[in-house]
């Protein structure tokens, strides 16, 4: 039945002058993350400033700092809107530099990560975190993106959690 539904549609907007990947790349990453569960739905991706990210993070997570990605699920999950991702391009650029990763790969990881949150995955407990990381790594591998958890900011390989 889900095959008869149209693929996940992505609406990409930005309220800040910053580099962002093309819409086709963001759409590809989101579709890979959501799979069949995204069919017939729409995802809104908003690229915002540090100030906007910090205000939203403070309001919704009580954390007074900008963050890489925030996920806001649709209040009516059965409706067409899957949810919203709010991405701070400046934070992604800083993290990619610190972690010595290609910026495009880090964008892919954060879009996948945010979409998995919209699908109900979380990383609050260690078992949830391992499950979510395994899912992210598998999706990213299918997209040709290296395991984001293998590198630390030092550039040295990190022991993989099992």
Q: Please identify the structural class as seen in this structure.
A: alpha/beta
CATH superfamily: Metalloproteases ("zincins"), catalytic domain
Please state how the strands of the largest beta sheet are arranged side by side: 1-2-4-3
Sheet of most strands? 4 strands, mixed
Q: Please write the CATH class name.
A: Alpha Beta
Q: What's the helix-strand series? A: EHEHEEHHH
Name the overall outline: globular
CATH architecture: 3-Layer(aba) Sandwich
Mean pLDDT: 90
Low-pLDDT ranges: 156-162
| Topology-level CATH name | Collagenase (Catalytic Domain)
Number of helices: 5
Number of strands: 4
> Over the alpha carbons, how many angstroms does the gyration radius reach?
15 Å
Task: Explain this structure.
The chain has one domain (2-142): Collagenase (Catalytic Domain) (3-Layer(aba) Sandwich). 42% of the residues lie in helices and 16% in strands. It has five helices and four strands, in the order E-H-E-H-E-E-H-H-H. It has helices at residues 23-34, 50-61, 89-99, 103-118, 126-142; strands at residues 9-14, 42-48, 69-73, 81-88. It has a four-stranded mixed beta sheet.
Q: What tags apply to this protein structure?
A:
single chain, alpha/beta, four-stranded mixed β-sheet, globular, Collagenase (Catalytic Domain), 42% helix, disordered C terminus, 162 residues
């Amino acid at each position: 039945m889900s095959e008869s539904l149209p693929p996940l549609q992505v609406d990409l907007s930005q309220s800040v002058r910053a580099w962002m990947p093309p819409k086709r790349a963001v759409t590809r990453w989101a579709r890979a993350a959501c799979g069949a569960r995204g069919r017939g739905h729409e995802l809104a991706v908003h690229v915002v400033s540090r100030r906007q990210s910090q205000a939203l993070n403070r309001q919704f997570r009580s954390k007074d700092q900008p963050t890489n990605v925030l996920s806001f699920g649709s209040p009516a999950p059965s409706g067409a809107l899957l949810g919203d991702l709010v991405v701070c391009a400046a934070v992604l650029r800083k993290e990619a530099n610190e972690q010595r990763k290609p910026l495009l790969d880090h964008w892919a990881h954060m879009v996948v990560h945010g979409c998995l949150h919209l699908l109900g995955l979380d990383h609050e407990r260690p078992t949830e975190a391992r499950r979510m990381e395994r899912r992210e790594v598998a999706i990213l591998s299918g997209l040709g993106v290296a395991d984001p958890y293998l590198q630390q900011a030092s550039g040295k390989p990190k022991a993989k959690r099992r």
